[in-house]
Recover the amino acids of this structure.
């Protein structure tokens, strides 16, 4: 049988659907699939999560649990917008010139095409999920319930709109959350500039037009006499006065110990401005160009303005010196690497501390367990220091924010439906907020929304879910937010356990990337070496929370293991004589081998139940190859060939018993090979239509 034929057999049985499982499958075991982004093909990381989750689902299905593995796909907001922008660029188009509805519909068709491809790819990887329940994060019910959550949280005072400093990506023309930033160490010139009697050091001289104060540490005796005073300074736009404030955020060891305060273009300066009631002046626009406050520098891009400003400061004798190799960290967009421009604009924020407290308690009281446990400490640290979450994204692709602006008076109404009249001025001129919600806001509600919260039978039967399996790098992006929003919206933890796998690396332990040319296409190697070989290579040596190594050589090596299994099964079945009807005479060695088999069963069962999938797979690999194939089969060959009937029967029965038990234990790991062998077993050993619902 081909892998495609075997998968077709499984689908025809209907057993991926928990409602169609045998009556013995009662207690639910639920995994909600982390929905892959519907903007491209599956990669090797997807193959890893498919394998690990499928192992659990197949194991617990065989143990009699009512297993639901609910698949889905994510519209992936900003990430998909970036991918689609590149597609448009190749076509000579820009999203900024395409009508909103037209662009949204184009992107929807694009994601649906990708989603269909991904579903086919997951089938090829052996995913035994319930396709009848498949969900998309832009299904109508998901959109409606996500917007309803926004409205409810707003009414409760947890969501608010505020004009404050945010992370702005000039290239992608949208805000980003703090989690969507990368921080890079760079070397840039540090410029020392004269400010009247004082001097400051800065890497951003182009922002001097937005300075509204100078600041020193109140404990710095060098400058204590200036605190509370205004000083006169010369600037490129003429003379002006700046107040000097004392603030403990200032590091006396940085530069001269005096810093310029530019509230509109630096997070720390913005907070300082709030503490000291300072003016806030924006001098860089959303396109990364200097505005009217920069005088003759208006319209210049940041980089060009920096060079021009430095040249002019030198001419005006206001530049004291330059340190050419100043090393510092800067924030960049995690997708394009463009330096983030802090900007002040009105955005929607979610208060996080009220949501974080119950999420911390749920893990501390073991209502949710992390595997490995050490990630709980990282989780606690982040939640204990959490900031409010900027929910707004200035893109088309996503779920619209359910807020309505009155064009006449500016009143904002938060509502699922467009109000007929402005509640303040009674006009009908209302427009919906053009922004969309951060994709993680809908993804953060995925476990219960995918099950039809709040009234569906599935929600009442399968929520809370059992295990959330995902990569550790989205612990904050997704896992923590699912816990916070799950507790807030349903009053229950969204899952009992969180299994965090590592990030796949090549044989040199380098991160996989297209630019390095070390990416493995899971579908290509699956086609070449077989899906089961790929799955074994992904599991063995892969302990939770540790970055595993994968290579084509490793996959090729496990193809040899699959071949070994097939050969051992072929020998056992070819030499089994159903017509030999004598009572078997088991030797002491036979009994010892059967006792050892029982020990292996118990050990493998315990390892899987304890999330030690790598150890269970390793045990089975060595047991089948080095004990069963190399020793037990070889030891049985003389009796099968020349032994008396009772001895021959015993040898046959021992081999068949071990083969039958082994393919059951191996089934979660290598489902295609084991199902093919199962279909060839003597009828008395095939109690079911398919191995996937045999008793463990």
């Amino acid at each position: 049988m081909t892998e495609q034929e075997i998968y077709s057999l499984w689908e025809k049985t209907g057993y991926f659907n928990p409602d169609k499982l045998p009556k013995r499958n009662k207690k639910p075991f639920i995994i909600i699939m982390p929905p892959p982004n519907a903007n491209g093909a599956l990669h090797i990381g997807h193959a890893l999560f498919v394998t690990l989750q499928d192992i659990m689902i197949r194991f617990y299905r065989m143990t009699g649990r009512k297993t639901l593995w609910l698949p889905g796909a994510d519209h992936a907001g900003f990430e998909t917008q970036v991918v689609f922008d590149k597609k448009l660029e190749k076509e000579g188009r820009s999203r900024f010139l395409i009508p909103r509805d037209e662009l949204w519909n184009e992107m929807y068709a694009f994601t649906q095409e990708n989603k269909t491809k991904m579903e086919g790819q997951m089938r090829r990887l052996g995913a035994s999920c319930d396709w009848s329940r498949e969900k998309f994060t832009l299904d109508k019910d998901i959109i409606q319930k996500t917007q309803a959550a926004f409205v409810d949280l707003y009414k409760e005072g947890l969501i608010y709109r505020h004009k404050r400093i945010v992370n702005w990506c000039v290239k992608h023309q949208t805000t980003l959350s703090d989690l969507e930033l990368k921080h890079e160490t760079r070397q840039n010139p540090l410029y020392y500039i004269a400010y009247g009697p004082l001097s400051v050091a800065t890497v951003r001289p182009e922002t001097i037009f937005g300075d509204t104060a100078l600041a020193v540490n109140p404990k710095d005796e060098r400058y204590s006499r200036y605190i509370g005073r205004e000083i006169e300074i010369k600037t490129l736009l003429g003379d002006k006065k700046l107040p000097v404030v004392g603030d403990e955020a200032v590091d006396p060891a940085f530069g001269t110990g005096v810093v310029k305060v530019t509230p509109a273009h630096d997070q720390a300066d913005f907070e300082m401005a709030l503490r000291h009631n300072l003016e806030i002046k924006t001098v860089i626009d959303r396109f990364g160009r200097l505005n009217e406050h920069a005088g003759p520098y208006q319209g210049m891009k940041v980089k060009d303005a920096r060079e021009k400003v430095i040249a002019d400061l030198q001419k005006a004798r206001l530049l004291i010196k330059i340190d050419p190799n100043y090393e510092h960290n800067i924030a960049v967009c995690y997708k394009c690497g463009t330096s983030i421009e802090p900007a002040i604009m009105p955005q929607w924020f979610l208060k996080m501390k009220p949501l974080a407290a119950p999420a911390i308690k749920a893990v501390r009281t073991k209502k949710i367990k992390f595997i490995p446990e050490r990630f709980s400490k990282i989780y606690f640290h982040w939640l204990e220091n959490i900031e409010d979450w900027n929910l707004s994204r200035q893109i088309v692709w996503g779920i619209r924010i359910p807020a309505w602006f009155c064009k006449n008076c500016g009143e904002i109404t938060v509502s699922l439906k467009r109000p007929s009249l402005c509640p303040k001025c009674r006009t009908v001129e209302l427009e919906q907020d053009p922004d969309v919600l951060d994709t993680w806001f809908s993804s953060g509600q995925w476990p219960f929304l995918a099950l039809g919260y709040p009234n569906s039978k599935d929600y009442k039967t399968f929520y809370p879910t059992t295990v959330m399996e995902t990569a550790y790098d989205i612990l904050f992006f997704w896992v923590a937010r699912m816990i916070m929003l799950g507790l807030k919206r349903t009053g229950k933890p969204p899952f009992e356990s969180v299994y965090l796998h590592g990030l796949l690396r090549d044989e040199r332990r380098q991160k996989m990337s297209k630019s390095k040319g070390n990416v493995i296409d899971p579908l290509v190697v699956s086609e070449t070496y077989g899906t089961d070989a790929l799955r074994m290579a992904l599991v063995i040596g892969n302990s939770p929370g540790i970055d595993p190594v994968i290579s084509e050589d490793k996959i090729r090596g496990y193809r040899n293991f699959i071949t070994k299994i097939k050969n051992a099964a072929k020998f056992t079945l070819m030499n089994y004589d159903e017509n030999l009807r004598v009572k078997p005479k088991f030797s002491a060695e036979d009994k010892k081998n059967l006792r050892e088999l029982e020990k292996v069963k118990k050990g493998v069962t315990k390892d899987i139940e304890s999330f030690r999938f790598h150890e269970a797979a390793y045990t089975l690999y060595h047991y089948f190859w080095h004990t069963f194939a190399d020793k037990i089969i070889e030891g049985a060959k003389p009796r099968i060939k020349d032994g008396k009937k009772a001895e021959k029967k015993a040898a046959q029965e021992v081999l068949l018993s071990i083969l039958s038990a082994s393919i059951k234990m191996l089934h979660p790991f290598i489902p295609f090979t084991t199902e093919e062998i199962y279909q060839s077993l003597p009828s008395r050993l095939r109690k079911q239509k398919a191995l996937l619902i045999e008793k463990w």
Observations:
- The chain has a mean pLDDT of 95.
- The chain has three domains: 3-150+439-501, 174-342, 545-693.
